Amino acid sequence: MKLPIYMDHHATTPVDPQVFEVMQPYFSKDFGNAASRQHSFGWRAEEAVAIAREHIAHLIGAESGEIIFNSGATESINLALIGAAQQYQKKGRHIITVVTEHKAGLEACRYLQGQGFQVTYLPVNALGDIDLDQLSHAICDKTILMSVMAANNEIGTLAPLTEIGEMARKKGILFHTDAAQACGKIPLDVRSMGIDLLSMSAHKVYGPKGIGALYVRRRSPRIQLTPQIRGGAQEQGMRSGTLNVPGIVGMGKALELAKALMISESQRIGKLRDQLYQEITEGLEEVFLNGPPLNKRLYNNLNMSFGKVDGDALLMELREVAVSSDAACTTSAGEPSHVLKAIGVSKERAQASLRFGLGRENTTEEVRYVAGRVIEGVKKLRKKVPRPT
Ligand SMILES: *Cc1c(COP(=O)(O)O)cnc(C)c1O
To answer: What separation in Å is there between the alpha carbon of 10 and the centre of ligand 1?
Structure first.
């Protein structure tokens, strides 16, 4: 077993060696511009992009013409929300989203508010779920778009996509979902789920950073987006700029692998996540699960708080373990997690929380080590500085 151990796969993932391998020729030998129609350098690049596009479309039940490549989920979300809002504002200027969305979605909405749009931010319960009746009541004749993330990056809450899609369809409203965490991990089908716009990112699924895609529905209805980056009219004019061919090839391979491994990896990693939780709770008193029950959340997510412990001190104890924590945020200039706050976790509990994101390279041995370090660290700190919960 090698230290340090990486358990922060919601933040990013390593590039799979198979992904790295297929990308390499497109940096050097096959460096062509996919838009060069006059020679074989361009054709080769174009062909590689077409194959990747197929894999990505296939994973979510879309057609390749519905995939718009860009730089990642942040850009996808901005294009989806701002592009749709600008394009359809004559129909109305109201958007519905959720308080626990990723900052990319929340900030895009904030920008639209500054442009005169109205945004409803739905609250969530202690599990991170929205209330579908509340969603339905929030819809008015000016609503053009709703955006609800598929899987939450902090607490793993899964949205009822099919129900939301059905509601959107009935009311004639566009439905965008941020699937950066869900894509490649849980089955997604844009047709049966009634999804109109879906944001993806390669680096969350063992692909490279800086490449992502937006699914844009092309029939019933055909969706138009106002471009946010103008230029040579690549990607059907919705996102100009020379295509990142190695990145696209890598993303295609990463999602092809994710599809092939989806069932086996969700079971294997889910078991590791459950083992981690079990060992920690057996070894410690006063630990609190943040978010939904384990069997109801994204299979690789675990978020918990530790009573009577200082979050910063705990992180120091876990220096050989890469996990994410709210501690650093509450003490420095940053804000505590808006997600933990939204589900009713107190400031103190949020400060003493850890987010584990398990992934493809993790092993049982590593889980045992991490659980041991957490137990040891918490016990040590509780002995040293008793701190009220
Ligand atoms: C990582 C992430 C993003 C941002 O993706 P980038 O490709 O890094 O821009 C957006 N939403 C969620 C849920 C994420 O986990």
So the answer is: 9
3-state secondary structure the chain: CCCCEECECCCCCCCCHHHHHHHHHHHCCCCCCCCCCCCHHHHHHHHHHHHHHHHHHHHCCCCHHHEEEECCHHHHHHHHHHHHHHHHCCCCCEEEEECCCCHHHHHHHHHHHHCCCEEEEECCCCCCCCCHHHHHHHCCCCEEEEECCCECCCCCEECCHHHHHHHHHHHCCEEEEECCCCCCCCCCCCCCCCCCEEEEEHHHCCCCCCCEEEEECCCCCCCCCCCCCCCCCCHHHCCCCCCCHHHHHHHHHHHHHHHHHHHHHHHHHHHHHHHHHHHHHHHCCCEEECCCCHHHECCCEEEEEECCCCHHHHHHHCCCEECEECHHHHHCCCCCCHHHHHCCCCHHHHHCEEEEECCCCCCHHHHHHHHHHHHHHHHHHHHHCCCCC
Pocket of ligand 1 (CB under 6 A): 10, 72-74, 102, 104, 149, 153, 178, 180-181, 201, 204, 212
Residue 320, judged by CB atoms within 10 A of its CB (0-12, 13-18, 19+), counts as: exposed
How many Å lie between the centroid of ligand 1 and the Cα of residue 201? 7
The answer to whether 15 and 205 have CB atoms below 8 angstroms apart is no
From the alpha carbon of 102, which atom of ligand 1 is closest? 11
pLDDT in tens, 109-161: 999 999 999 999 999 999 999 999 999 999 999 999 999 999 999 999 999 99
State the closest ligand 1 atom to the C-alpha of 104, by its place in the atom list counted from 1.
Answer: 10
Residues involved in catalysis = 329
pLDDT in tens, 7-63: 999 999 999 999 999 999 999 999 999 999 999 999 999 999 999 999 999 999 999
Nearest CA to ligand 1 atom 5: 73
Whose C-alpha lies nearest to ligand 1, atom 14? 180
